[in-house]
Amino acid sequence: MRALTICLLSLVAATALGQSGVGVEVDDVTDNRVSAGMFSGSLELRVKLTGNNLDKATAARLLVKEAKDDRGTSLSDGKSQPDFFPREYNSGTLQLSVGQPARAASSVRIKGTVELLVPARDPNATVKVEKALAKLDAPFAHRTLKAAKITITPLSKAGYAELMKSRKLDDKKIEEIRARAKKENVPEAELEMMLGLAKAMEGLDDTPSEGAVILSAKEADFKRVYRVEILGKDGKPVNVTSRSTSTRGDDSIMILQPSEAPPEGAALELILVTDKSRVSFPFDLKVQLP
Predict the structure, then answer these.
(1) How much is the pLDDT for 80?
(2) Same domain, 62 and 153
(3) Three-state secondary-structure class, residue 215
């Protein structure tokens, strides 16, 4: 394996300005070009946003539409959509990853969109579900969620156990996966590795701790939910020590573990990703490689 990893701190390769002055600056470059069988490297960038109105944004993300090195190698499928990342984390910087540049490449050009999440722009972006845990194993009946066609179900421990049982990889499911993989020309070695990983992940499905809030939804629905908070008696978010989301097929489970059991009649606050709450700006970066 040949690997080259060089970090260039405080490197400003380019700036992309939107109408309000929001821009993208490269802050750090990690160039890891690897040649080792089926494994390949990547180009990792840490970028920071600059400009006006950033203090109004709750979160941000970078959507890459096109990435090419100066040898013409395409480094992105243009389809990946990362989750929104909180603006208060990592001093507001974002991580951007594209494929491995050609060994002889000296620069990479990346085009895409910066998306800011500004819930204050849309009254329907913040949903408060009163007494959210009073009726478990039944979808929330909130009108805003229904209008948005988002279905989320709070689970009891019994409901969680039953769902976990239904997700187990039995012989029938494995045969269905093999048939689909064959149709999509997935290499046998890659398929076996995927099946092995899936089986290993099943062993990590522990029963949530006492007081945990367990939510079930389709993966597509959870992708439209930026954050879920458990509200205390004072109406403020309680301390959540861990958050996790696991996905099998189209179904996802979100587990919130608060530092203490939610108060009786606790409400949940959901921040939704809506068309009105998103603000987009194009960016165009040219990054010099080490």
Answers:
(1) 75
(2) no
(3) strand
